[in-house]
């Protein structure tokens, strides 16, 4: 049964590295529409938020933008709630690898939040390209991954959502949405930046259920 969720620390609003949060947070599993329920949703309290100990809310460019949520009760797996697959530790995917972002963020720069869950194809951008001086430069490090640069991108309030990427015939949660360009969501040479999940597999394994 599911007892942990992976989430960007940005969405935890600067909680300490280990802090009880059952009266603050709930998770909704199986949801699709933010304003209408289908009866398939599971609403579960969060008993603990575990941020990465090196995360600095005042300097997100350092990375470590990842957290685990301990669920107070077990989730039921069904057709609408399934486990995401974690990638092999330290996996680096190639340039233009097939990936998809999902989220309820803004549908355009300055636009409104999406009522329904959206999905967009974002090709992976390798680190050597994304870290060029006229791209993101030193704002991205090896523990991050970039994706996008085409017709679609992540946008504000997509933070915390997954980037699912194809590897050896299977989709893995390769990234967690971290940040976009503050001026424009799909700005040239500023693809969406994600926490690279494969860089934190050992840390996640060290957190005991």
From TrEMBL:
Peptidase S1 domain residues: 1-209
Entry keyword annotation includes DNA-binding: no
Q: Which GO terms describe its cellular component?
A: extracellular space
User: What subcellular compartments does it reside in?
Assistant: Secreted
Q: Which InterPro entries match?
A: Peptidase_S1_Elastase_sf, Peptidase_S1_PA, Peptidase_S1_PA_chymotrypsin, Trypsin_dom
Q: Name one Pfam family in it.
A: Trypsin
* One GO term (biological process): proteolysis
Per UniProt, which keywords does this protein have? Calcium, Disulfide bond, Hydrolase, Protease, Secreted, Serine protease, Signal, Zymogen
Top-rank lineage group of the source organism: Eukaryota
Q: Signal peptide span per the entry?
A: 1-16
What GO MF terms are annotated? Answer: serine-type endopeptidase activity
Q: What is this protein called?
A: Peptidase S1 domain-containing protein
Q: Which organism is it from?
A: Tetraodon nigroviridis
Instruction: Give the source lineage, highest ranks first.
Output: Eukaryota, Metazoa, Chordata, Craniata, Vertebrata
